[in-house]
Amino acid sequence: MGEDDKCYSCGAQEFEERHINYLYSHKGKYLLVPDTPVEVCASCGMMYCGAVIEDIEEQFFAIHDDRAKTDNYISVPVKAYTNFQN
Ligand SMILES: [Zn+2]
User: Fold this and answer.
1) Mean pLDDT of the chain
2) Residue 84: inside a domain, yes or no?
3) Domain boundaries, position 50
4) Contact 41/18 with Cβ under 8 angstroms?
5) If you average pLDDT over residues 52-57, what whole number do you get?
6) 2 assigned to some structural domain
7) Per-residue pLDDT for 3 more than 80?
8) How many CB atoms lie within 10 A of CB 79?
């Protein structure tokens, strides 16, 4: 974010850079991108990804079209919230 940017949510002008595990999904396919740099509003916690999302989207299609290699594969357990028992 630039000097004069304001948070769309609360109007604050202070942002912190953080690294998150970004899970991109599109039509039932996923790409997990560990350590994605994002900016977070210091006041309300709203997350801003900026142009990083475009890079992730490009990699997502490259990987699913076999034009690029993954670093790794993981399997993830799935359980619906409505099936939680405690
Ligand atoms: Zn904010």
Assistant:
1) 94
2) no
3) 15-73
4) no
5) 96
6) no
7) no
8) 8
Q: Is the separation of the CB atoms in 13 and 2 below 8 Å?
A: no
Q: Report the predicted TM-score, pTM, of the whole model to 2 decimal places.
A: 0.80
Q: What is the distance in A from the centroid of ligand 1 to the CA of 74? A: 33
* DSSP three-state, residue 23: strand
57 within a domain of the structure (yes/no): yes
The number of folded domains in the chain is: 1
CA of 30 relative to ligand 1 center, distance in Å: 28
- Using a pLDDT cut of 90, give the percent of the chain over it: 91
What is the Å distance from ligand 1's center to 12 Cα?
Answer: 5
- State residue 1's pLDDT score: 66
Residues with CB under 5 A from ligand 1 (ion): 7, 9-10, 12, 41, 43-44, 46
| Residue-level pLDDT at 77 | 95
Residue 21 Cα to ligand 1 midpoint, Å, equals 21
Task: Say if 39 falls within a structural domain.
Answer: yes
Chain Cα centroid distance, residue 51: 11
